[in-house]
From TrEMBL:
Cellular component per GO, a single term: cytosol
Ranges for domain Pyruvate carboxyltransferase: 9-271
Function of the molecule: Catalyzes the condensation of the acetyl group of acetyl-CoA with 3-methyl-2-oxobutanoate (2-ketoisovalerate) to form 3-carboxy-3-hydroxy-4-methylpentanoate (2-isopropylmalate).
Interval of the full protein contained in this chain: 1 to 390 of 516
Any one GO MF annotation of this record: 2-isopropylmalate synthase activity
Top-level taxon of the source organism: Bacteria
Family stated for the protein in its record: Belongs to the alpha-IPM synthase/homocitrate synthase family. LeuA type 1 subfamily.
Protein name as catalogued: 2-isopropylmalate synthase
Gene from which this protein is expressed: leuA
Length: 390
């Protein structure tokens, strides 16, 4: 399937670039190469491996990832300057498939205070930087930094100029995580509708999670016509992070009825990728994190456990196997019911008659009041004791 087809969403992973911009999340060369290899194995379309001009380490990481790459497109970030673009092109040179990702701020706030440039000068920089990047590679992505807070007419002019200069992907970042889903979707739809030759480029979204809306904004934009989503494993990234790749991919897969778009990702590698990134960066994943949290497929309440034992679909909207786990867990705790306890006793290899099971269940409940989680060894010890009492 072509990455440009109407029902295909391109997954652009920026764990190694924007993810690494998370304070304290730096990774060494060998670690970046390991992550890139797994991303490629998962079927990620574009791997943004770093910002080559930022440091020698970043240059080497992009260069090394480019050397080891195969099917995936390797991207390197560059500001709108020749020096940045030259450095990105040099780092990417060994990649069979490469992309220069160049960006400049377009919002009034950023242009005035950060760049201290007039809008017309920014517009010229868009034209020059994209054309220069296109003289180096065929695949050029242009990003309007702070795009979601940019004045719409000016944004249309910048996007039109970038496409005319040869950009093949147009990315509209919600750099500060300020947008809300309907507004962001309307912005993407407006650009696709109004900009001349919009069909010559793939529209892309890049959402930050300052209001916890990065995934919702990205999905709303896909429904409005965006066909590339920029994201990171575990939602790693600046401040509150970026849109989480595992959430985007599993939402598209689980709710294909509302969002009929394929990502091409082997979802069974999601858990492995989450663990790898978390181990390397030292950023632990919160237990209740969607898809990859320790509790994402764990059930403690008696009512839920009973339902799960009858049919897993009662309380699970996707299977643990689909994200690379072997099975769901029924956590034995004070909310567990008799059905789950009976199941656990059986799983541990015991057969108890009804009276013994009732006695053991009462003692289990007393123990569960004292302990947060009752482990298999606790249940086994309790049953052994119950058998000895007879
Ligand atoms: O958040 C942002 O705007 C970015 C751009 C450089 C794409 O990371
Ligand atoms: Zn970003």
């Amino acid at each position: 399937m072509s990455p440009q087809s109407a029902d295909r969403v391109i997954i652009f992973d920026t764990t190694l670039r924007d993810g690494e911009q998370s304070p304290g999340a730096s990774m060494n060369l060998e670690e970046k190469c390991r992550i890139a290899a797994l991303l490629e194995q998962m079927g990620v379309d574009v791997i943004e491996a770093g910002f080559p001009i930022a440091s020698r380490g970043d240059f080497e990481a992009v260069n090394q990832v480019a050397k080891q790459s195969g099917r995936a497109i390797i991207a390197g970030l560059a500001r709108a300057t020749k020096a940045d673009i030259d450095r990105a092109a040099e780092a990417l040179d060994p990649a069979p498939r490469k992309r220069i990702h160049t960006f400049i701020s377009t919002s009034p706030l950023h242009m005035k205070f950060k760049l201290q440039m007039e809008p017309e000068t920014v517009l010229q920089a868009v034209k020059d930087s994209v054309a220069y990047a296109r003289s180096k590679v065929d695949d050029v992505e242009w990003s309007a930094e702070d795009g979601s807070r940019t004045e719409p007419d000016f944004l249309c002019r910048c996007v039109e100029a970038a496409i005319a200069a040869g950009a093949t992907t147009i990315n509209i970042p919600d750099t500060v995580g300020y947008a809300v889903p309907d507004e962001y979707a309307a912005l993407i739809a407006m650009l696709i509708e109004r900009v001349p030759n919009a069909d010559k480029a793939v529209f892309s979204v890049h959402c930050h999670n300052d209001l916890g809306l990065a995934v919702a904004n990205s999905l709303a934009a896909v429904n409005a016509g965006a066909r590339q989503v920029e994201c990171t494993v575990n939602g790693l990234g600046e401040r509150a992070g970026n849109a989480a790749m595992e959430e985007i991919v599993m939402a598209l897969r689980t709710r294909a009825d509302r969002m009929p778009y394929d990502t091409g990702i082997d979802t069974t590698l999601i858990t492995r990728a989450s663990k790898l990134v978390s181990t390397i960066t030292g950023f632990t994943v919160q237990p209740n994190k969607a898809i990859v949290g320790k509790n994402a497929f764990a059930h403690e309440s008696g009512i839920h456990q009973d339902g799960m034992l009858k049919n897993a679909q009662t309380y699970e909207i996707m299977t643990p196997e689909s994200v690379g786990l072997t099975k769901s867990t029924l956590v034995m705790g004070k909310h567990s019911g008799r059905a789950a306890f009976r199941d656990k006793v059986r799983e541990l290899g015991y057969t108890l008659d009804d009276d013994k099971l009732n006695d053991a269940f009462k003692r289990f409940k007393d123990l569960a009041d004292l302990k947060k989680e009752v482990f298999d060894e606790d249940v086994a010890a309790l049953i052994d004791d119950e058998i000895l009492r007879a």
